[in-house]
Design goal:
Blueprint lengths: L1 H17 L13 E6 L3 H12 L10 E8 L7 H9 L5 E6 L15 H9 L3 E4 L22 H15 L18 E5 L1 H9 L4 E2 L2 H5 L5 H5 L29 E2 L4 H5 L17 E2 L6 E6 L6 E6 L5 E4 L14 E2 L8 E2 H26 L4
Parallel strand pairs: 1-2, 1-4, 2-3, 4-5, 5-11
Antiparallel strand pairs: 6-8, 7-9, 9-10, 10-11, 12-13
């Protein structure tokens, strides 16, 4: 009898780790859960690094991560499940959302609504990561300069953020956060763009072409190094040490997010990791601008006017190479190779640490219900 009980316990434990419908099972309601949208192996490694480096400073005995994804995405999330199992990651779980999503049903109750509400009610916050271009049809535009590779992911993340925050696209919908306004919703790069699109805004489909009138890599480079949001030198010359990104500065607006929430001097112009060719154009419902590019042309940060813990940035504060001397790269062919950590400098590293400190504080204070 004891052997049978032990075997049952082992089977239950293994199933609870590998199951991909976490919130449908008998999970531990005493824990706090943070949602990770698009939980690829790479994104799990990123979160693990942030936790292990104490940048994301949370109590991992009480707080767990649940990767939530849509069955219609292109990525094989069995890879994530296997990664969790092989590395015995006891703080990570998975939940698959199954529904029929298309460009016409994202801004209304749909097949995801019930599942998303359960996920929201049993979690304290959600992260949205970077990635490829959103289908322009999602924000009512023709595709002129976007490269769409995984529409299913964008359908899901757009409707997820719509349910959380509401939208100009459906003003009668009651956003989930109305009932839990201090819930954390944050994103990086694509995550910020999706937040804006989900709340009814739109995007610049290609910064060089639409903002600077540059149609080729060579003409794009003429707009100036500080105005490049990724590195176009790699399209012009062959050099294995060229970085694919840019480490340019940003400036803060008069919005209090940077200064009050993130305790930094408003005159600071921190250097950040930038890797995108699209950007926020018309703002979505509730969105306010917190940061801009050096020339003021590109929105680099957003915050919600109603929900204090809803904010996102166009850059990538989650990249581990910003915090350690991991490898050396250069932006211009004639530059001296340096690590990202050395290029951005101590003041900018400190800025990023404070950014994660603010997120950590929100999560530590968060209540399950």
């Amino acid at each position: 009898m004891k052997k049978l009980l032990l075997l049952s316990t082992i089977i239950f434990f293994c199933f609870s780790v590998t199951a991909q419908d976490f919130f449908s099972e008998n999970f531990n309601h005493r824990k706090k859960y943070i949602i990770l949208a698009n939980p690829t192996v790479r994104n799990l490694k990123t979160i693990s690094y942030l936790v292990n480096a104490d940048l994301l400073d949370i109590n991992t005995r009480k707080t767990k991560f649940v990767g939530v994804y849509y069955t219609g995405q292109n990525y094989d999330f069995n890879l994530t499940r296997d990664y969790i199992d092989k590395n015995d990651l006891k703080n990570f779980y998975l939940h698959e959302v199954k529904a029929d999503l298309n460009e016409n049903n994202l801004f209304e109750e749909n097949g995801c609504t019930k599942d998303l509400k359960t996920i929201f009610e049993n979690s304290i916050g959600v992260f949205f990561f970077g990635g490829p271009d959103i289908p322009p049809a999602v924000y009512n535009e023709e595709n002129t300069l976007s490269v769409v590779t995984d529409p299913g992911r964008h359908y899901f993340e757009t409707t997820f953020l719509f349910h959380l925050l509401g939208s100009y696209r459906n003003n009668s919908f009651n956003a989930f956060l109305i009932n839990k306004p201090r819930y954390l919703v944050t994103g990086f790069c694509l995550g910020m763009q999706t937040m804006n699109v989900a709340t009814g805004g739109n995007l610049i489909q290609d910064i060089p072409a639409e903002v600077y009138g540059a149609e080729t890599p060579e003409s794009t480079l003429k707009s100036g190094r500080t105005n490049l949001h990724r590195n176009y030198w790699q399209n012009v010359v062959k050099d294995s040490l060229l970085m694919g990104i840019n480490l340019h500065t940003i400036q803060f607006t008069g919005h209090p997010f940077f200064g009050d929430n993130i305790k930094v001097n408003k005159r600071l112009t921190p250097r950040i990791y930038s890797s995108h060719h699209q950007a926020v154009e018309k703002l979505g419902k509730g969105m306010e601008v917190t940061a801009l590019s050096p020339d003021g042309e590109i929105i680099e940060g957003l915050a919600h006017k109603r929900f204090p813990n809803v904010f996102a940035v166009q850059f990538h504060p989650e990249v581990s190479a910003l915090y350690e001397n991991m490898y050396v790269r250069k932006f211009h062919p004639e530059d001296t190779p340096m690590s990202y950590n050395d290029i951005i400098g101590k003041k900018s590293v400190k800025f990023h640490e404070k950014y994660w400190g603010h997120i950590s504080q929100i999560l530590r204070k968060a209540k399950r219900k």
